[in-house]
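Worked example 2:
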Amino acid sequence: MVPSYILTLADASVTLETVGGKGLSLAKMIGAGLPVPDGFHITTEAYRQFVAANGIHPCVLAVLKDVDITLPATLETASRMICDSFAEGEIPPDLVSAITKAYSALSHPAGDGDKSVAVRSSATAEDLPEASFAGQQETFLNIRGADALLGAVKKCWASLWTARAIAYRVKNNIDQNTVALAVVVQEMVNAEAAGVLFTANPINGKRDEMIINAAWGLGEAIVGGMVTPDTIFVDKATGRVKKMEVAEKTVITVETESGTRQETLNDARRNSRVMNEAQVAELVNIARRIEDFYGQPQDIEWCRAKDRISIVQSRPITTLPEPEISVPTEWKLPRGAYAVMRNNIVELMADPLSPLFATLGVSAINRSLTRTMNESFAMRGIMPDETIIVVNHYAYNNGSVSLKGMARLIFGAGKILRMMFTGAVERWTEKGRPLYKQTVEGWQAKNWRAASSIELVEAVKQLVESAIDAYAALVSGVIPAAWITEALFTKLYNRLIKRRGDPTAPTYLLGYDSLPIRADKSLYSLAEWARKHSDLTICLQRTPNSQLAAMCESEIVPGDVQPTVWQEWRARFYQHLSAFGHTIYDLDFIHPVPTDDPAPVLEALKLYLRGQGTNPSTRQNEAAERREQAVQAMRQRLRGLRLKWFNQYLASAQKYAPLREDGLAEIGLAYPLIREMLSELGERFAREHIIAMAKDIFWLTEDEVLVAAGRLDAGLAGESMAEKIPLRQAEYRAALRVSPPVALPQMKIFGFDLMSLKAKRGRGGKGDVIKGVAASPGKATGIACVLHGPEDFGQMKPGDVLVAPITTPAWTPLFAMAAAIVTDVGGPLSHGSIVAREYGIPAVLGTGVATRRIQAGQMITVDGSAGTVVLHSE
């Protein structure tokens, strides 16, 4: 097979490995119809052939052994020795022939018969989204003649080994042995003006503003920083010039017989503007097309000759600041809503909602909950159609019942309660859970990756709605039944039965083998197995969690672990994830579950590997033993009516309590599949440049996804929506910085919010005291560890006080480390309080402000009996 030394610049088959980052970018832009000067690629195969023919690679390896990037002299010495090898090397005859033949084929000869070309380096680790490598390799302009071209090509190859390029690769962890360099040869544009355009403001991160630098002559003076260019600020949408700063341009780069030189600029151009409004608008239009094509902000080099604009390079902007916007201050309810609260199912949506969940997800919730209320409790026409509404990206439970509906609700309360308790368990065990599981398994068995894009969207909607149907089966029976029966038992026990020294009421309801406890026991058993293999234990403890997860997925076997041990570990770990990896941290599917991001699980595993935390089996057995002993002691002591009441109310509470935790832990059964489907859809969108990356799909709305999916299925080009995403992400970050009101509307008199004042007196507490719900008794003092999600799990240390917006079953492994629990959202019967009691640690939930008022590292005292958190000044 003949080596591919030369490819046309427009060749659609080029790859990063064959033509490097710059060459690939230029080829793509030509394919998209953008104004790029013609030319050809000298591929990386040519570079490797030259290196092999001259025996340069052994020299490179030997020289790099002595390099220390903290010692610049070693970099300079290594670079000089390697570049000397390139300069002394001879280009093989077949390669010379291929280059000169491609050069002769270029059109538009110069006046003397030779062609003037630009010779540009294009490395395989260049112009990438994560590392631009800008300016690391060389470019040579106005090269004429075959000999000059061959000399410039050798210099480009050698520039792969400049001191700054070697250091840059070391700093960015790029293997020096695998890099190669292609060369782009393009027709030379004798530019009257040239410059750089950023499709987003690199100073403040504004995505709706472009910045242009422009100077007279060739672009070398700008790129090299030898001239102060004009700076033009442009509105991206309209192309209108917002501000033009005309600089004094003292230097110009011009062509010579062969090459370029800098000259002093003394004519009228020195203080005149380089571009007029029409030229700016034309350039901005081209830049918009480039950004839309790539789906992300671009750093573009351009030039202008005879009123024709050409693009000579485009690469991603790698240092663009994230846009920031002001935090929301107005909390206005939509028309028709007059009273909303952050309670019930909203407790599983503590964070701001992603755009896709706020549309597709919330509409599925509203359909499901409305159907459940109508069919299970005959409440048609009573509850509002939209059970969940979104205000400033936060979910609220809509309690805006009409007067007629309120009357029906009051007079029908007894009937509704009877229906709630009738078949409450069966509604979950015989209908809700089986139907949910059947739906998930049905889609898992299908070849859904072959489905159309619209079918994928509909599948996601069906799975989300199925998850909410399952939740509705719980919330319409097991959950309220558990809440009511536990509350009744507690009240009866405390008022009529409990004596000084008797166990607390929760003692009688703890020690059951719930799904979160089984997950914790499985993880502990996995750690116990791993501890039998010292090499595996050392590897697991010292390797970062993200890297461990990647190694497991790629089947890479660490060099210091026996392959059979590693494969057994992988099998056991994935068995654990298969059984328990669907537990959710948040109902919004933008948040990964342990199955697709096991890093938080690995962090909890390392706790057990270090011998920290209590054996969950021992803890559960002890709780179960305390429960049985307490029950038996009470039955022996009580007589008559009190014994009857004790047995009756205890039996009801013990019937529902274990089911509640199992049910909540299984709400996420569909979530691994939902995220897989959305990832597949995101990949399709990214390939068509609708979004930059697959994960950006979560920042689109349901309508936008449906339109894009429909166009893909019809074979039509999708419109880029990439530029919308940074602003939406900025809005999300702004929403994260505020504490959403617990209830709306806000009641303001003379500018003061009465609900806010109430919150400060109640949940907010006075001074150094925060008040909340007393959820698990006891008192503990410790360092606050404020975690906003699973990505923060690695910050938790044994003995810390866990402070979080909310805890779901997926947070359970952290309870083994925590001295106490404090949350923004939750009540005495939410997951956090139940598990805290299982673990015997105090908990204060529903503070509303904990994650914002408590600072990470602050010493706090949690009183789970009084429902207070004291903030210590030191």
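Residues 1-185 form a domain with the Dna Ligase; domain 1 fold (CATH 3.30.1490.20). The first strand starts at residue 6 and ends at 8.
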